Amino acid sequence: MHFLETTWTWLQPLLAGELAQGILRALLLLLVGIPLSRLLARTASVVVSRLVGSDRAQMLRGFIWYGLLFMVILSALREVGFDLSVLLGAAGVLSVAVGFASQTSASNIISGLFLLVERPFSIGDTIEVDNVQGVVLSIDLLSAKLRTFDNLYVRVPNETLVKARITNLTRFPIRRIDVPVGVAYDSDLEQVEQVFRELVDREPVLLQTPAPLFLILGFGDSSVNLRLSAWATREDFVAARVALHRGLLNAFRDAGIEIPFPQRVVTYLGGSTSPEPLPGPDPAVAVEEAPG
Amino acid sequence: MNNPARDAKAAVLPAPWGAAAMQEGVRALWRLGPLELWVRRRRHEWRVAARWDPSASSERVTRQVPAEEEPQKGMQVLRFGQSETTNSLRVLPVLASLPVVCRPEGPFVVHAGQSVVAYVGTPLWARLVTAEADPLHEVDIHRPSRSWFGPNTVEGELAYASRTSLHLDWKDMGPQPTRALTRIEISNDGTRPLTVSEINVPMPHLELGLGGTCSMWTESLTLTSADDGLVNVEIGGFPDGVTPLDLPLPRVPRAERRFTAGLTQFFR
Description:
By secondary structure, chain A is an alpha+beta fold.
């Protein structure tokens, strides 16, 4: 009891002092301000997400949270007695140094704002950027996160997203599948086209419209080069690509349409211009079998 | 054209549709056009297998209960578990879950102030329903291909592509026991000719009825186009002589039977 009385007598003048009161006020500000800032940021995010989507809301939440936190800390420092004008003065000098050091981060933040407005992709879209394909997991203050198809985590800075060419593979509901293929020069191209269209007609994963495309690209060294295109929904794209390739191979085989290997016709100068078949292997000569 | 109320006496489903009594362990086989559908009842599960024979006649509609023929080896068998299966299973005809794109043999033109009546046949699905009215499974009878219907590859909707043509005389269509017939009146109230090469029929919004010679009909449609690029759509009643079937409501019930939509949503 005597100890408590002594301790209280010793503390009283300290607590009555301005500094102690300031520290108490600052602590109160932090205790109330930090959770309140978090609550406000979360509430704003929920409201905004209903209007403009979760990815924009997520980035806005970050801005609000850090902004409010900065104000709460400044207010707490002022209560303790810090002269913020000194800080502001120092900030002027510091900002130059910090600006040089953080120009990349600042650029990423500004780029994030541009992405918010322009919206080239949303969470859940599949995009390709810098030769990386993946599903967008999140769009944050400084970067976007992707999950690749082989389950890798890729962080792409917002600055890169603004500067680079982004291909959004799932923005539109249907996609076209292109199959470049060469057929032998003696093929009946009308038959090839008919086989292709019949395949598209009977394959349920391929769409009837837009109509499939049969294009003759040109005359190659060994084959007539074609491009056969069919459409599928974005959800069925992979299955449709497999079905189209496999179906074409089987259908061509069944119809006797050749996809030729590279070929060369050799003509002897000064002699007959008709190609001569090369002699076959001499049956009298034993052929050594390859090991294994 | 009659317009029967929903609670009017419903038509009875003709065989092979409708209920089939199945004892435990029994196998049944439905042949509906190209579809061969096996169903086997076990005490705590139903087993379903399906196969499509493109060479089979589309007019084939038979049911065997019990069926001696077994599903072929390698066929995928779907299993549906239940605490206790009952001895009745219903096979109901239902309309497509997506709109169906129908195409005439060749494009035709409807001049200003004119109207035509066209008939289309769209594929049916077979829905398996237990005695407790729980839907068990749904199978497409004709395996229709899908199509994208819209003004471009960005705007539009996914639809089925009908393999039968659109006709201006329904007698040209022949018997279609595994398809639903729809009467569509196309009116051109504009000042410019309307060329019709494809029509997008909103099947999920229609109901199914039974007409003469056991043909299935949907509710009629009236599409009225004007120069403003819009179409007034009216879902009418069933044609004369067609009675509604006691089937579940349309897949996508529509509160309004008249609505306006873009021209490109229905015509191409």
